[in-house]
Amino acid sequence: MPFETAKEQKERNKHVREGANEEEFVNWKAERDQGLRKTKLLHPVLLANARGGSLLKDRQNA
């Protein structure tokens, strides 16, 4: 089936499941995050955000 109803989502989806408490969700999220790779662009994005969206200028063209 290419879709799920809102009821099915509430029953099965860990993000929106009814009856899940905060501790269960935090434990699930921490476990999931440990298995994810770090993004390659995290550092450049943080730098751009710290500069108010400005990107570094190319040193050859400066």
From TrEMBL:
Name of protein: Beta lactamase domain
Taxonomic superkingdom: Eukaryota
Gene3D superfamilies in alphabetical order: Ribonuclease Z/Hydroxyacylglutathione hydrolase-like
Region: Disordered, residue numbers: 1-20
